[in-house]
User: What shape does this take?
Amino acid sequence: MSCLKAYPTAQHRPHATGTGGHFALFTFGPHGRVTVEQFAELYRGLVNELDDETPGFFSRPLRGGTLKLLCLSMLDAPNLQVALHRYTQFFRILLDDFGYAFTLEGDLARMALVEHAPLTGSRTLIHELMLKLFHGIASWMIARKIPPILMECAYPQPPHSADYLYFYPGTVRFGQPQTAIYIDRGFLDHPIRQTKRHLGAFLKRAPADWFYVSFADRLLTHRVREHLSRHLLTAGTVHSAADALHMSARTLARHLKREGTHFQAVKDEYRRDVAIQALTCSEKPLVSIAEALSFEDLACFSRAFKTWTGNSPAAYRKARTAGNVR
Assistant: This one.
């Protein structure tokens, strides 16, 4: 996912040394990339440092334990529709400047974000995370991935919008009057499957489980990534991937285009994510990483990585322990 910037305001942002240096990776600017695990680590660090489970988003902090109480209030609901009503009421009671509006529209259920006052920090980021909070908790409650049918965004298309493909497999529209997500109304009758016994593990993994209900397994893009993960060095071309997926290269290109991408973009995204994982979670030499990702040499790898993230591989790795990189 794209790296965070201006998170969330200058007066609220912890220093890189404030929580053991965990924030160093998150100062790369608009092209920076982080893994889900790194984002979750950052988020937990901010929550602990600020004692705010929506760190700096709103005029009133949500103190530690707020989201636990939210989930507890939903667990004994007879079905998802009642649970979601409680969800909206919970935020209506707690916050003055933000809330949710839940409505039924024919065969669809709609959950919209409502701003009662200007938000602090990155409005796009807050909208993304608060919508995923709803979506993740709703999916967890009934123990099923709820596929969004439509997502409307009350902001311009962001540079990282290609990542929406994995989390919102339906239609996504930008520049709308209100940010909202639409799901099949049939899910509202599903009973709540989780119990208090399951809640501890869910909260311990936060925010990964509720922010990242991924639908990558539904996509041809994901199947291409799986192929590359096994055969990048020996069969990493579009023709090899098409053969492995039992289709022509033209058919593969057509299906990927429908998903809003193309083969080279999928390959670059895969190599970028593997590179970030290797740089942050291992001491593997840069030359070895370049070779494993099928680059001709270290210089080619460095150029590509700087294009992807805005920084060289060496600078990215150094930032883990040495502070900010601009």
In short: Residues 166 and 216 are 5 Å apart (CA to CA). Residues 123-141 form the longest helix (19 residues). Confidence is low (pLDDT under 50) at residues 1-28.
